[in-house]
Structure formats: structure tokens, C-alpha cells
Specification:
By secondary structure, the chain is an alpha+beta fold. Helices cover 30% and strands 31% of the residues. The strands form four sheets. Strands 10-12-13-8-7-11 form a six-stranded mixed β-sheet, with no helix packed on it. A three-stranded antiparallel β-sheet has the order 3-4-5, with helices on both faces. A two-stranded antiparallel sheet has the order 1-2. The longest helix has 18 residues, at 161-178. 25% of the residues are buried.
Length: 288
């Protein structure tokens, strides 16, 4: 980014200097401003990585430049990329900017282009970041959003910039053309009804408290099965948000997801006389 000693730079410009221009100096300036030293900030980075589930990552500096104690995996970088996109959309939008101009204090403005080659291809990529190390060579975390579907691809070990660009494009294209995103359930929306025993209502709507999507191979939706499982009828009283069963998602005879079914509302127990009538009815007719 070409920050000089004595320059005053806004945090926003430092972030754009990192995101768009890949400025190592901007990384160090922010690290020292936040943690006092770059070494201390690297410890904070590693701690955050572990918190996110990046179990095979360690940071020795803020910029990622060559250091034997800097290491990660494509899976861990994918975890970090996914976290960035989902939790910090206000910053992620900067990753798609093709250039950044810094109106520096004591000289002419400096304009630098984004080093992500996929931004310049007509495919809709909107991030994420390039990398280069002496041993690992060229790498790229890339992402695309199409028709409401987000794909992230991470590749490393490319020998040239051209191969990095070409193979990363292939990864994203492969994901788009060979797999479908299937919506299983929407958070807090009713997905089924279960039978209730001895309650003031005979049925109860159930839901799960998260969005559930699954990736499957194209034209293989017939192998996907979604079932609600519970021991029923469920005896009242039932409290709102009480766990009453499980939603199971099976693909090609393998369980790929299991989620708690929650009661959409409270259902109170009927009085003792109604309970006796219902019990007799069940004994005689087998009707709950």
C-alpha cells in the first residue's frame, strides 16, 4: 500500500489496502494498532482460527508472508472464507472491488488493482483472496453467488498465476454444473404436524430453528429422503419450543443431517373427565 512513516491512514483505507491491494504494510499497521505488536496479533489470529474450527492453522504474522510457523489447509481457509462472507457482509463487498485508490498524505494518489484474476472474468466471481508463498506457490480462495446459491473454492500449489486462475475457474464451474442446492427447511417455519394425546388440541405443528440446505449431485433428488420421527402420539402437556422428535435427512441411504423438531406452541392437558372419555374411546376404538 506504500504507507510511509508518519502517514495518517483511516482504518477503512487500511482494510481496503489489505483486501484490494494485498498490502503487507497495512496488515502490520492494523495489527500493531489493535494488539500493540504484530506478534501479539498473530496469537489473537490463531486463537480466533481455533474458535472457528480451523484446527490445522497457525499464524506467525499478520500478512501471511513467508515464515515456517505460518501454515494452514485449503479446508481451514474455506472455513474462514465462509465465516467472513456470512458474518461480515459489510466488509465482504469490498473483496469484489477491482481497484483501490489511496489519497495518501504527502504525495500523489496511488491506485492499485485487485489481484484476484477471477474478478476480471465474465463469471460473476465476487472474491476472495490470492496468496503466494515460496514453497506452496500460488493459491486462491474464490467465491461466486448465482441464483441465491453461494459456492466457495480454495486451491493451492499452483505453479503459475495462469494455472491458478484457470483451475480455480474450473472448480467453481464444476460445483455449479454438477451439484444442486436443495432447500430442506426454513428456520421457524412449520414443516409437519404430529399427533397429540390427551391435549386440548389433537395435532401440533412442528418446526426446526435453523435453515437447512443440502448439496446433492444433479438429477439425484430421488435419493434424498426427509422424514419426521417421533414417538407418538405425544402426551400433553406440551410446552412451546419443547423437543418432540427429530427431522432426519437421508441421501442414498446415508444420514446426512438430523435436527430437533420443536413444538410451535403450548398445548395444555384436557381435564380429568375428558381424559377418561378419550382413554375409553381409545380402548374401544383405538382412536387417539
Amino acid at each position: 500500500m506504500f504507507v510511509m512513516i508518519g502517514d495518517e491512514v483511516s482504518v477503512k483505507n487500511l482494510l481496503k489496502g489489505i483486501i484490494v491491494a494485498s498490502g503487507n504494510d497495512a496488515c502490520i499497521a492494523l495489527a500493531e494498532g489493535i494488539a500493540g505488536t504484530e506478534e501479539e496479533f498473530a496469537i489473537m489470529m490463531t486463537s480466533k482460527a481455533k474458535e472457528l474450527g480451523m484446527q490445522n492453522t497457525n499464524f506467525a504474522n499478520s500478512s501471511g508472508i513467508n515464515d515456517p510457523d505460518n501454515y494452514s489447509t485449503v479446508k481451514d481457509i474455506m472455513i474462514m472464507s465462509n465465516y467472513l462472507i456470512k458474518n461480515h457482509p459489510e466488509y465482504y463487498k469490498w473483496f469484489s472491488e477491482k481497484e483501490f485508490t489511496w489519497d495518501r498524505t504527502g504525495g500523489d494518489p496511488i491506485t492499485q488493482g485487485n489481484r484476484n484474476p477471477l474478478l476480471y472474468k465474465n463469471m460473476g466471481a465476487d472474491g476472495i483472496k490470492t496468496g503466494y508463498l515460496a514453497v506452496e506457490r500460488y493459491s486462491l480462495a474464490s467465491s461466486i453467488k448465482r441464483k441465491g446459491r453461494r459456492l466457495i473454492a480454495v486451491g493451492s500449489g499452483f505453479e503459475t498465476k495462469n494455472s491458478r486462475s484457470r483451475e480455480s475457474s474450473k472448480l467453481l464451474t464444476y460445483g455449479l454444473t454438477h451439484f444442486d442446492l436443495i432447500e430442506i427447511a426454513k428456520s421457524n417455519e412449520s414443516i409437519d404436524k404430529v399427533d397429540v394425546w390427551l391435549g386440548k388440541e389433537d395435532e401440533l405443528e412442528v418446526y426446526i430453528d435453523e435453515d437447512v440446505y443440502k448439496i446433492i449431485k444433479k438429477a439425484q433428488k430421488r435419493l434424498l429422503k426427509v422424514t419426521t420421527n417421533y414417538l407418538g402420539p405425544i402426551e400433553a402437556p406440551i410446552e412451546k419450543n419443547q423437543i418432540v422428535g427429530k427431522l432426519k435427512v437421508v441421501y442414498d441411504e446415508n444420514i446426512i443431517g438430523e435436527y430437533d423438531l420443536l413444538a410451535s406452541k403450548t398445548i395444555k392437558k384436557v381435564n380429568i373427565f375428558t381424559r377418561l372419555l378419550k382413554s375409553l374411546n381409545y380402548l374401544i376404538w383405538g382412536d387417539v
